[in-house]
Design goal:
globular, alpha+beta, ribonucleoprotein, ribosomal protein, S16 Ribosomal Protein, Chain: A, 5-stranded mixed sheet, 2 helices, Ribosomal_bS16, Small ribosomal subunit protein bS16
Amino acid sequence: MLAIKFKKTGKKHQHYLRLIVAEKKSKLTGRSVDDIGWANPHENTHEINKERVQYWITKGAKPTEGVHNLLVKAGAIKARKVAVHKKSKKTETPKAE
């Protein structure tokens, strides 16, 4: 199954992200099918090829949660953002008095 995901590149403490299409379970240092954009988290800039994003989504590629939120922010897809933060494993139980 194909996925649109981030590939971290750059120097230590100065990384930037490439948006790639690759197999869901492939390593990030491995081969990618297509390179569709980049994002710089330090300067909050990005450039995404929206046509290629739409093409790969129609072919069945699913974006990861972080990529999905970036694509919504860039206007490449029309959807709601997804909560990416970790959810607590603890469930609060009411104490009996």
